Amino acid sequence: MLSAEKSQTLHDICDIFNLSQLVKGITCFKKGCNPSLVDVIITNKKNLCFKTINSPNGVSDCHNIISTVVKGNLPAQKRRDVTYRSYKTFDIDEFTNDLQKIKISENCNEKDLNRIYDDYEEDFKNILNKHAPTLTCTSRRFQTLTCTSRRLFSSDTNVYKYLGRKIIKSEDERPVNDSYYLVWPNYSYWTVAYAITNKGVKKLLHQKPLTKMITLDEFLPTMFDKNPEGDQSWNKHFFPRNLISLSTNPLLVEPAWYGGQPGHYTDTGDAYIVQEDEQDGHPGQYTDTDDAYVVQQDEQDGDDQQIIKDEL
């Protein structure tokens, strides 16, 4: 759209159908090419659009994000009845004890099986209703989602919320209540972007992680007790592991570069594990292929371990 020659066809279409192009300025900064305006918003109702944005966003390495706001009315959402069980006062021991009191007749014939089963089912439902009664509320989905987010992410809760991450097993993650946009995350890699409450920060700092040498993307799943290797390694060093973790779905932030792409850099992906020398109890010497890191121990004068970093 910046070049009259290249955009003539689009200009002609707009003139013929009385359309307006809302985006102004450069939107694409592809390396090796002249800046261009290739992302457009075309409408025949220009008076209904306002606050058109053309801005860099950090997600794409060459494209700006463009958006506009359209004036309009949303249809009222229908109210619906939601039935659920309340486990607010549920006690598993009391529930189990009441179940054990159900009497089942042992002397019966085939004709009595259906009756005995029906009687047991009725007794079980009565006990379940006693300990976890069914309640009904009327709500709208939008209100439900809003209330859920506000309640879970209030300042008095220890909540960590992923905005960007690498999902390992999405099939193991379930939605928060009936939310379309929040899930309970499982073990995840990366810490691309996140939000955390003040109480959540205090809970993490209380563990004194800087004294225990653990990477952030291992530390966080450990703190919400989803690290698959936790029982063998991390769990014994961190307690209590009751951080409440949520994740947006879909994710709101993604890396600008992935592994193998030009410009991608990782300081952990190819790192070596420094282990203790089993013979003399001192750290040994480890050098990677680029001689980037050398860990040495001066055994003659007993100097402390030195870490020499030649290059990043």
What's the alpha carbon Rg, rounded to whole Å?
30 Å
Total beta-strand segments: 14
Q: Stretches where pLDDT falls below 50 for ≥5 residues?
A: 140-147, 278-312
Arrangement of strands in the largest sheet: 8-9-11-7-10
Percent helix, as a range, is 10-25%
Oligomer: single chain
**Intertermini distance:** 42 Å
Largest sheet: 5 strands, mixed
Inertia-based shape: flat
Write down the overall mean pLDDT. 75
SSE ordering: HEEEEEHHEHEEEEHHEEEE
Q: Which structural category fits the helices and strands?
A: alpha+beta
* Percentage of residues in DSSP E strands: 15-25%
Organism: Mytilus edulis (Blue mussel)
GO molecular function: procollagen galactosyltransferase activity
Keywords: Glycosyltransferase, Transferase
Protein name: GLT25D
Describe the structure.
By secondary structure, the protein is α+β, with helices and mostly antiparallel strands. It has helices at 8-16, 92-100, 113-131, 141-152, 198-206, 216-223, and strands at 20-21, 42-43, 49-55, 65-70, 80-85, 134-139, 159-167, 174-175, 182-184, 188-196, 244-248, 286-287, 293-296, 306-309. The longest helix is centred in the middle third of the chain and has 19 residues, at 113-131. Residues 140-147 and 278-312 have low confidence and may be disordered. InterPro entries: Collagen_mod_GT25 (IPR050757). One of its GO terms (molecular function) is procollagen galactosyltransferase activity.
